[in-house]
Design brief:
Number of domains: 1
CATH class: Mainly Beta
Strand order of the largest sheet: 1-2-3-4-5-6-7-8
Largest sheet: 8 strands, antiparallel, barrel
Radius of gyration: 19 Å
Distance between the termini: 39 Å
CATH topology: Porin
Order of helices and strands: HEEEEEEEE
Structural class: mainly beta
Shape: elongated
CATH architecture: Beta Barrel
Length: about 150
């Protein structure tokens, strides 16, 4: 009987609790990457999931594929975590860090960004990342357009 009462209590709490704004997102993005005084265009896609950690804080995970737009360049795959704050109803400010796997060398990266909702499902984003390489560090700046689910 006690187990049934606990189960009913948990079910009632789950039904009466407002839905959290956790979200799945996908995006297309493009920008510039620079290293050793050379700048190249880059384009890519990403998919991620953000978890609400309260009214103003969130954490997220993301996997991305980006290509430097020069002949012979491979696609770089990034595994990134992000932690940030919500600024009002429509904007997220975040720090990001992770690991990028690519041609010849796998490197850690750190960055920051701003994501702004244009509607319930559509957002734009700007993000900076610094890649820590043993050979030549790189910096990228991208803008993205995405959808939330």
């Amino acid at each position: 009987m006690r187990k049934i009462a606990i189960a009913l209590g948990v079910a009632a709490a789950a039904v009466s609790t407002p839905a959290m704004a956790n979200e799945t997102r996908i995006e297309a993005r493009g920008g510039i990457i620079s290293a050793l005084g050379t700048e190249e265009a880059t384009a890519g896609v990403a998919a991620g999931y953000d978890f609400d950690l309260g009214d103003t804080v969130f954490a997220g995970v993301e996997v991305s594929g980006d290509k430097v737009l020069v002949d012979g360049s491979d696609i770089y795959v990034g595994f990134t975590g992000r932690l940030g704050t919500k600024i009002g109803e429509d904007t997220k400010l975040f720090a990001a860090g992770g690991y990028t796997v690519g041609e010849g060398e796998d490197v850690p990266h750190l960055g920051a960004g701003l994501q702004h909702a244009l509607s319930d499902r559509v957002y734009v984003k700007a993000e900076y990342r610094h890649f820590f390489s043993d050979f030549a560090d790189a910096d990228s700046g991208v803008v993205g357009f995405g959808f939330r689910f």
